[in-house]
């Protein structure tokens, strides 16, 4: 299936205000399953269908980038059984979806510390990233074993190495220098963060990158996330006045 690159509804939005980069904390899979008397993994599987819908939406609305929080640095605290099934789902999704992503000109990137994943999964990730690296459509970032604090620390380590090698002096370390070492620095800034599942927190997702992002929270559980809610989030974003520290216009 080739996703439609043309957006039928684009005229309903004033396109200069559309977000370019949307990030989503996909929460609520477990509760979705529990409400149906099913195992948590069933919720994660249903969540995968919601990922497909969200990617389709992002392509249709011509976002530059969509960043999805799939597994946090802290999610290793979960029972082994759940982690194993999440890893299997991740591998399965990579194997089965990569051709569709590639055919749709989508560039896939995994952000996070992938060293903790199995060798096979790491190989698969590298292969998928390489295959799609020259694509010019949507950039799809999957945050896996990602933590906002980890991201900042890995950036600081890069800077420390540069100082050690004499490439940089400590005085030259400024926002710009650190920014260049943080995940996704080459992409449009994150405009909008959506969190499903009813919690009003960031849970160590992007920290540096969302300094001025707009936040949208919904009680909808991730497997139920659809175009109607995505559109509501985008519409809400478009009504906000982003001031970046400036004085209010009214
Ligand atoms: C989000 O859903 C998916 C992951 C964190 C992997 P949860 O599994 O956290 O679902 P709830 O919050 O327990 O309902
Ligand atoms: C955040 O959800 C992580 C992902 C969606 C991958 P969690 O379910 O892990 O967050 P907390 O524990 O409720 O803060
Ligand atoms: Mg959760």
UniProtKB/TrEMBL annotation:
GO terms for biological process: cell wall organization; peptidoglycan biosynthetic process; polyprenol biosynthetic process; regulation of cell shape. It is an enzyme of class 2 (transferase). Its cofactor is Mg(2+). Keywords: Cell shape, Cell wall biogenesis/degradation, Magnesium, Metal-binding, Peptidoglycan synthesis, Transferase. InterPro entries: UPP_synth-like, UPP_synth-like_CS, UPP_synth-like_sf. Pfam families: Prenyltransf. The active site is at residues 27, 75. One of its GO terms (cellular component) is cytosol. The keyword Cell wall biogenesis/degradation applies. Substrate binds at residues 28-32, 40, 44, 72-74, 76, 78, 195, 201-203. Gene3D superfamilies: Decaprenyl diphosphate synthase-like. It catalyses: 8 isopentenyl diphosphate + (2E,6E)-farnesyl diphosphate = di-trans,octa-cis-undecaprenyl diphosphate + 8 diphosphate. Mg(2+) binds at residues 27, 200, 214. The keyword Transferase applies. Binds 2 magnesium ions per subunit. GO terms for molecular function: ditrans,polycis-undecaprenyl-diphosphate synthase [(2E,6E)-farnesyl-diphosphate specific] activity; magnesium ion binding. Its EC number is 2.5.1.31. Catalyzes the sequential condensation of isopentenyl diphosphate (IPP) with (2E,6E)-farnesyl diphosphate (E,E-FPP) to yield (2Z,6Z,10Z,14Z,18Z,22Z,26Z,30Z,34E,38E)-undecaprenyl diphosphate (di-trans,octa-cis-UPP). UPP is the precursor of glycosyl carrier lipid in the biosynthesis of bacterial cell wall polysaccharide components such as peptidoglycan and lipopolysaccharide. Belongs to the UPP synthase family. PANTHER family: DEHYDRODOLICHYL DIPHOSPHATE SYNTHASE 2 (PTHR10291:SF0), DEHYDRODOLICHYL DIPHOSPHATE SYNTHASE FAMILY MEMBER (PTHR10291). Homodimer. This is Ditrans,polycis-undecaprenyl-diphosphate synthase ((2E,6E)-farnesyl-diphosphate specific). It comes from Blochmanniella pennsylvanica (strain BPEN). The lineage of its organism: Bacteria, Pseudomonadati, Pseudomonadota, Gammaproteobacteria, Enterobacterales.
């Amino acid at each position: 299936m080739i996703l439609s690159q043309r957006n039928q509804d684009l005229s309903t939005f004033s396109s200069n205000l559309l977000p370019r980069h949307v990030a989503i904390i996909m929460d609520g899979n477990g509760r979705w399953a529990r409400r149906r008397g099913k195992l948590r993994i069933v919720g994660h599987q249903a969540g995968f269908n919601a990922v497909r819908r969200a990617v389709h939406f992002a392509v249709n609305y011509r976002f530059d980038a969509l960043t999805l929080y799939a597994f946090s640095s802290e999610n290793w605290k979960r029972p082994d059984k759940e982690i194993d099934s999440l890893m299997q789902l991740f591998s399965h999704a990579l194997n089965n979806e990569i051709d569709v992503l590639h055919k749709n000109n989508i560039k896939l990137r995994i952000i996070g510390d992938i060293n903790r994943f199995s060798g096979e999964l790491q190989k698969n990730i590298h292969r998928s990233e390489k295959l799609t690296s020259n694509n010019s459509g949507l950039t799809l970032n999957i945050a896996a074993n990602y933590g906002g604090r980890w991201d900042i620390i890995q950036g600081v380590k890069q800077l420390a190495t540069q100082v050690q090698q004499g490439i940089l002096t400590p005085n030259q370390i400024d926002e710009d220098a650190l920014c260049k070492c943080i995940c996704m620095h080459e992409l449009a800034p994150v405009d909008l963060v959506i969190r499903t599942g009813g919690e009003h927190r960031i849970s160590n997702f992007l920290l540096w990158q969302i300094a001025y992002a707009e936040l949208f929270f919904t009680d909808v559980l991730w497997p139920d996330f659809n175009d109607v809610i995505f559109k509501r989030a985008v519409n809400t974003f478009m009504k906000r006045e982003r001031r970046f520290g400036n004085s209010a216009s009214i």
